[in-house]
Design a protein that fits this description.
By secondary structure, the chain is of the alpha+beta class. Strands 1-4 form a two-stranded antiparallel sheet. Strands 2-3 form a two-stranded antiparallel sheet.
């Protein structure tokens, strides 16, 4: 049988939530930096005819492109743009980590 004197009851629910995300900041690449990375990645990862870093640097120099600092491309600068861009992509596309701590339910 239901006893109306025992209701309503008040409870306190305590728990903690931890969220680790990379979605809280904007990209700090300029449009030109993004274009260079996309172009280098396309040339480097081409399925039929992938190009080496030296060939890519020669191609970009012949087309009149400069590095973001305004210097001509070398194979090491192309390598650096490519590797740092891949690290940046991995960081941006990383899955969020959500952890919920222990849940405690206590009467008031």
């Amino acid at each position: 049988m239901w006893d109306c004197k025992t209701y309503p009851k008040q409870w306190v629910v305590r728990f903690s939530v931890s969220i680790i995300t990379t979605k809280l900041w904007e990209s700090n690449y300029t449009g030109y930096q993004q274009y260079l990375f996309d172009r280098i990645r396309t040339l480097k990862e081409d399925i039929l005819t992938p190009m080496g870093y030296r060939s890519i640097s020669k191609l970009l120099n012949n087309e009149g492109y400069k590095t973001p600092f305004g210097t001509p491309f070398t194979n090491s600068k192309v390598f650096s743009i490519y590797q740092k861009g891949l690290v940046r992509l991995e960081r941006i596309n990383r899955e969020d980590i959500v952890e919920v701590g222990d849940v405690f339910i206590e009467p008031v």
